[in-house]
Each structure stands twice: as C-alpha cells, then as structure tokens.
Amino acid sequence: LISSVVQTEKIKMLSLRLITLFAVALAGSSLAKDERLPNMITVNMSGYMYCVGTVISKNRVLIPAMCASSGGSSITVGDRSGNVPFYDSGRLYSIINIKFHPDRDYMNQANEYAILTVDRAIDAGKGFKGAKLAKGDVEIPEGSIGTTIRRASSMTTTPVSYPWSPLEYQSVRVTNGAACKEMFLDRWTADYICAEPADTSDIYNPYGVESGAPLVVDGQIVGIAACDMGCWGTTLAFRRISTLGDFIAQ
C-alpha cells in the first residue's frame, strides 16, 4: 500500500513538472513573438531618406513605387534597426534589381509598389528579432495592437541635422474600418486594414506613419502603409500584405 501511494505521488509530481515546463515554453514563445519588431529600413535617395521599406525576404524590400522612380543609381537601402544612434547612418546596402508591380497604373494607386533586391542579406545585428512576413490572409481582430514606424520628431531626438531621419516605433490600434470607409469612400476595400494611433499624447509628433512602413501584429508583417489612402492623422490605412502575395512570390 505504501509503495502504491509513493508511486502515485511520483506520477503526480512528474505530471506537475511537465505541466510547468509546458507553461514556461508557451510563455517563452509568446514573449519571443511579442519582441519581434519590424526592421527600420530606410530608402535613401542621393543620401537622404525618402521613405521606409518592408523586409519581405533576406535581401528584398517592398516599397512604394514612387520611392524607386529615379532608378537604382541614386538609391540605397539602410537598416537602422537595433538602437542605431541618430548620428549613425546604419548599415547601408546597394540596389542590384528593381521590380515594379506588373499592374502598376498611375490612375489606380493601389498597385504602386516595387521590390528592391539588395546586394547581400539584411542583417540587423545580434539580438534583434525581426518580424516575419505573414503567410496567407491573417485575420486581425478589431482592437488588435500593432507596431509600425514613423519619423521621430527632431525636436526631441536630434539637436543637429543629418541626411537620414531618426525613426521610432509607433503603436496603432486596428479598427473596424468605419472611419476609413467614411474618409476614403468607394476607394476603401477589404484589401486594406484601418487603424488609429494607440497613443496621442506626444504633442510633438502625435499621429502618422511613414510611407512604406510595415504593420506588425503578433510578430507578423500583415500590412504596408498605404499613403495613397492615408498615413497621417487619426485614420491610417495599410495595404494587406496577402493581397500582394503573387507579386512578392515572383
């Protein structure tokens, strides 16, 4: 009888230990996902930042087409991820290929995108956990908090001027789209995600997102800022990455 009781207690202890280890593993994976942020990618023209890009593979960046309108000779890509100080340009990459969306139409800004291929793998440095491109059409519930990128206020970050602009992460809240439908009328479709700033307390730079900036929710890149719709003010629009899947896969 005593042996049976001891055996039962051992099984209970083992079960409890397994449950604890499983819970810790889940917590660890959740924390890792929460820590995944978008790379701070700049698209520079003649040394000056023109817009922001979204990393879609180890050496490719999705950008608004207008940011590549001058051709590759004067464009570079910079990575300012990982707490790069404002006086440092960050890691710079050369462009080896530019591919515009095949359905690009000046009258229809919805396909105004291009993909830059750079000369080597984009490396944000040790310890930086970059967000991964979402696979397929990810459902994003209303109220979800996402992370995007905006230009930091020079009044609070840089005492002097530099060719590149300091960037910072901006938290946004996904909405039901009513405000976007009201503002953009028949241009608004299910191809877009509507959001609003999660915090408007910054009196110097309260709203806005940089052109071409990624939208990351739960560690996944789910959208890219659609400034042809709206990327300034309290109503922000992001093109769903899933709607550009065929173009990205080329």
TrEMBL record:
The record's annotation in Pfam families points to: Trypsin
- Domain Peptidase S1 as annotated: residue spans: 26-250
Transmembrane residue ranges: none
Q: Name the UniProt key words of this record, in alphabetical order.
A: Disulfide bond, Hydrolase, Protease, Serine protease, Signal
Gene3D superfamilies (alphabetical):
Trypsin-like serine proteases
Q: Which GO terms describe its biological process?
A: proteolysis
Q: What protein does this entry describe?
A: Putative trypsin-like protein
Q: Which organism is it from?
A: Nyssomyia neivai
